[in-house]
Design goal:
Keywords: GTP-binding, Initiation factor, Nucleotide-binding, Protein biosynthesis. This is Translation initiation factor IF-2. It comes from Candidatus Tagabacteria bacterium CG09_land_8_20_14_0_10_41_14. With about 500 residues, this protein is of the alpha+beta class. It has 4 domains: about 10-195, 3-Layer(aba) Sandwich (Rossmann fold); about 200-280, Elongation Factor Tu (Ef-tu), domain 3 (Beta Barrel), CATH 2.40.30; about 285-410, Translation initiation factor IF- 2, domain 3 (Rossmann fold, 3-Layer(aba) Sandwich), CATH 3.40.50; about 415-504, Beta Barrel (Elongation Factor Tu (Ef-tu), domain 3), CATH 2.40.30.10. It has 11 helices and 29 strands. α8 (about 320-330) packs parallel to α11 (about 395-410) and α9 (about 350-360) runs parallel beside α10. The protein starts with a helix and ends with a strand. The protein binds guanosine-5'-diphosphate. Guanosine-5'-diphosphate (GDP) binds near residues 28, 32, 133, 136 and 137.
């Protein structure tokens, strides 16, 4: 993956480890696989505390056969329950992970979430590996899975296609080393790079309340370096990099690209999925922060999804059958504007761990079906203002979620984006009025319309287009692909490369 700064500083680039996400249908063994890899490949140093769940971990594996003799290489696994990161990819088409592992249970088949995962992976264009899991089971039928995949257009290497496929058992560990080797091989082919001199940027994976030390978050560094003394900004949340730890809770002085790090001391809870930037001084950070009124989540390619409300949902039921039924029924209540993100769906009572998981995302709901909630779960839920609702009839749960969706539906579409333009030059820069030259990237620029001004993903502020010029003469609008001049009313300090979002 290459970010802007990577392109700008090609000569300074150094390799970075791959970030891997495990996807697949529920119960096909994602958690078991991640647990197996974590347990067998993470060496905890003696100083490290008890492994805490921070949503990601790093392992070290031998270099691939092609690079024998090289030292070990690292792999970062996203270990996020509900795969927050990948649901972000689905929503925003952003590349968070570099490689995906698609788990399909050998005793089951290609299911809804398998297909959803395939679509998400293909949309982002990241390379992926099929892991046919539960190969230890008597009724495992890997060839049936391969056939189903090929019917979906996925041609595996063994059958003359391009997609690597490995048979594994996440339970016994069989085939897992081969899978990791394959990840390694793909990573080498991808030639992932980072600019170690850049200030770290990346995204927020999870946030939580550290009982003793305040608001903490796991960040994944995508590019650059994070050092103690820097300052982090993620939307409105900011933190000094004073307590910097790796995923094991061990203190670090600095951390580089692809590393999951835990930062403690945020002023407010940073939302998972949001981008973060880091600054070498508090002053730099403060100016940026005051400019940020709204932050766009990662790369917002899908305009339709942009205003979607997401309700994180945990489902606990008395049996696997009812879990499945509930997921299926509740999902039907989704609307164009509100969708449910199932972060966990499992049989069993509602536990403290469920409440903890729910506390990781804002506005989460826990729905129970014929189960109880432990008193610790209730306490935690109350503290984090998480709703726990328990039902004993499915349609009641359905009705309730419909109401909740209705309540959370944004009342009206306020604005319609009619175009996007890039600023090329600033001709005149007065306090409230600016004359700029630019080019229309998408749609059109129209006199009299309002604009939002962005610097990368940060919203700097708004303004109004007072006048538009094309080939030096005044005009109503300038279409896509054309250059223009414009008189803007805005207080924002504009700079070349800023983008204008024009809306009515
Ligand atoms: P997830 O929903 O995809 O995270 O699935 P889980 O990891 O929770 O696995 C669902 C069930 O399948 C659990 O009961 C696991 O113990 C079981 N399971 C996962 N992997 C294997 C495997 O390789 N072999 C067998 N026999 N069972 C497995």
């Amino acid at each position: 993956m290459s970010t802007k700064s990577e392109k700008q500083n090609k000569e300074n680039l150094t390799p970075r480890p791959p970030i891997v996400v495990v996807m697949g249908h529920i119960d096909h063994g994602k958690t078991t696989l991640l647990d197996y890899i974590r347990k067998t490949k993470v060496t905890e140093s003696e100083t490290g505390g008890i492994t805490q769940h921070v949503g990601a971990y790093e392992i070290e594996v031998p270099a691939s056969p092609a690079n024998r003799g090289e030292k070990n290489t690292k792999i970062t696994f996203l270990d996020t329950p509900g795969h927050e990161a990948f649901s972000q990819i689905r929503k925003h088409g952003a590349k968070i992970a570099d490689i995906a592992v698609l788990v399909v249970a050998a005793d089951d088949g290609v299911k809804t979430q398998t297909e959803e995962s395939i679509q998400a992976i293909q949309k982002t264009g990241i390379p992926y590996i099929i892991a046919i899991n539960k190969i230890d089971k008597e009724n495992a039928a890997p060839d049936k899975i391969k056939k189903e995949l090929s019917e979906k257009g996925i041609q595996i290497e063994e059958w003359g296609g391009k997609i690597p496929c490995v048979n594994i058992s996440a339970k016994t560990g069989n085939g897992v080393n081969e899978l990791l080797e394959m990840v390694n091989l793909i990573a080498e082919l991808e030639d992932l790079k980072t600019d170690p001199n850049a200030n770290a940027s990346g995204y927020v994976l999870e946030s939580y309340l550290d009982k003793k030390r305040g608001i903490a978050a796991t960040l994944i560094i995508q590019n650059g370096k994070l050092k103690k003394g820097m300052r982090i900004v993620a939307k409105n949340a900011t933190a000094p990099v004073r307590i910097l730890e790796n995923f094991l809770g061990e203190p670090l002085k600095e951390a580089g690209a692809s590393s999951p790090v835990k930062i403690t001391g945020f002023n407010e809870t940073p939302e998972s999925g949001f981008k973060f930037e880091s600054f070498s001084s508090k002053k730099d950070a403060e100016t940026t922060k005051t400019q940020i009124q709204r932050h766009r989540v990662l790369v917002d390619k899908d305009e339709n999804d942009k205003n979607k409300v997401i309700i994180p949902l945990l489902i606990k039921a008395d049996a696997k059958g009812s879990v499945d039924a509930l997921v299926q029924q509740l999902k039907k209540a989704e609307t164009k504007k509100v969708c449910l993100k199932i972060v966990r769906a499992k049989a069993g009572d509602i536990t403290e761990d469920d409440a903890k998981l729910a506390s990781g995302s804002e506005n989460s709901i826990i729905i129970g079906f014929n189960v109880n909630a432990s008193s610790n779960a209730k306490m935690l839920a109350e503290r984090f203002e998480i709703q726990i609702k328990i039902f004993n009839i499915i349609y009641k749960a359905e009705d309730w979620i419909k109401e909740e969706i209705e309540k959370r539906t944004p009342k009206e579409e306020k604005e319609e984006i009619i175009g996007k333009a890039g600023i090329i030059k600033i001709f005149r820069d007065e306090k409230n009025k600016k004359i700029i030259g630019g080019e229309v990237k998408i749609g059109k620029i129209t006199a009299g319309k309002k604009v939002k001004i962005y610097r990368r993903e940060f919203l700097l502020g708004g303004g109004e287009i007072l006048e538009v010029r094309h080939n030096k003469s005044k005009t109503e609008e300038v279409p896509e692909g054309q250059q223009f001049g414009a008189l803007l009313q805005t207080k924002v300090n504009l700079a070349p490369k800023d983008t204008l979002e024009i809306y009515s």
